[in-house]
Amino acid sequence: MQARAMTRFVASGERTARPEQLGLLDKLAVLIFGVTVPRPQNSATPARVGLAFDTHRIPTAHGNTLDAWYIPADRERPLVLMFHGYAVSKSTLLSAARVLHELGCSALLVDFYGSGASTGSGTTIGVREADDVGATLAYARQAWPGRKIVLYGISMGGAAILRAVATQNLRADGIIIEAVFESLSNTGKNRFRAMGLPASPFGELLLFWGSVQEGFNFFTHNPIDYARAVKVPTLVLNGEQDERVTPVEARRLAEAIGGHARLIVYRGVPHMAIVDAFPYAWKNDVREFMSRL
Fold first, then answer.
1. Nearest-angstrom CA–CA distance, 38 and 89
2. What is the pLDDT of the chain when averaged over all its residues?
3. Kind of pairing, strands 65-71 and 54-59?
4. With pLDDT > 70 as the criterion, what percentage of the chain qualifies?
5. Does 188 fall in a domain?
6. Is residue 118 part of a domain?
7. Does one domain contain both 172 and 67?
8. What tens digit of pLDDT does each residue of 36-56 get?
9. Beta 234-239 vs 174-178: how paired, if at all?
10. Of 160, 39, 18, 28, which Cα lies nearest the Cα of 89?
């Protein structure tokens, strides 16, 4: 029930709070019945942050259609394809998109299948989402030929990017990833640690039943293994106080990428969009990265 609840969105209802915010009885209920995760919806559009945009519809090999917002800027600067995290939608990328626009970069914000205005239902925490990354890159190359393209992903979005690079031999001009887990196994265990429960065997049981239900071996869903296929400049960002993805995990991920990677850890930041915590530092670090492409 835990595994099914985490990969199948419900039509409506109140989302279960973060594990650290749950009381004892709530933790017991979650342990038995699983979390409640409503289908993610977009809470705003680029117009909310003063940006003009067009809506694009991107077909995928699975028969779904991805909904995307294109925010134009300087055509001589890179186009950034942006992918959101777990159980949220592309509206959570607006803060980063606004800063990228200030840097002169165009952006394409994408709803993964099952989220926002895209078709489909549920999530595989970065597995099938990697196919969405591939479809988006192919669409962008056709719609805006000749543009330099950077892939940006936070949490699950970054995992999907790394998987797409490794399994589909995707090649962009640069990659920016934030708060990306090195293995789904560690992420599952960290979730139970946050609830004050033993990481083992609960973490392994969660992945086992998720694998049975989804028909994919989630024990092999390890971005640290995908990272070794990355051969382009990559910016790896992480929060110092991230309880989901520790700085140690981020460092190992950067080491797996090798000389192409630069790791930046932001002091005091938990598992969240770093641009919302340190907008000026994030902007300067991304500006420097873009200037080297």
1. 12
2. 93
3. antiparallel
4. 99
5. no
6. yes
7. yes
8. 889 999 999 999 999 999 999
9. parallel
10. 39
200 contacts 207 by C-beta, under 8 angstroms = no
The pTM of this model reads 0.94
Least confident of 131-135, 157-161, 192-196, 208-212: 192-196
- Based on the structure, what is the number of domains in the chain? 2
What tens digit of pLDDT does each residue of 151-180 get? 999 999 999 999 999 999 999 999 999 999
Q: Which domain holds residue 2?
A: 1-38+200-220
Question: Reduced to 3 states, what is the DSSP secondary structure of residue 271?
Answer: coil
Residues 125 and 253 in one domain: yes
**Residue listed under structure tokens 């800027």:** 73
Nearby residues of 94 by Cβ (< 8 Å), 6 or more positions away: 44, 46, 48, 49, 109
Residue 208 is which amino acid?
F
Write the CATH number for 239. 3.40.50.1820
For the cut 90, the answer to whether the pLDDT of residue 13 exceeds it is: no
Task: List Cβ neighbours of 148 (8 Å cut-off, separation of 6 or more).
Answer: 77, 78, 79, 173, 174, 293
Same domain assignment for residues 18 and 113: no
Say whether 262 sits in a helix, a strand or coil: strand
User: CA 10 to CA 36: how far, in whole Å?
Assistant: 7
| Number of other residues whose CB lies within 10 A of the CB of residue 139 | 20
- Look up residue 101 and give its two tokens: 């626009």
In a shared domain, residues 72 and 170? yes
Token digits of residue 267: 């002091």
- The reply to whether 248 and 229 lie within a common domain is yes
Give the Cα separation of 260 and 166 in Å (integer): 15
pLDDT digits (tens, 9 = 90+) for 87-100: 999 999 999 999 99
Where does the pLDDT of residue 20 fall: very low under 50, low under 70, confident under 90, or very high at 90 and above?
low
Same domain, 239 and 206: no
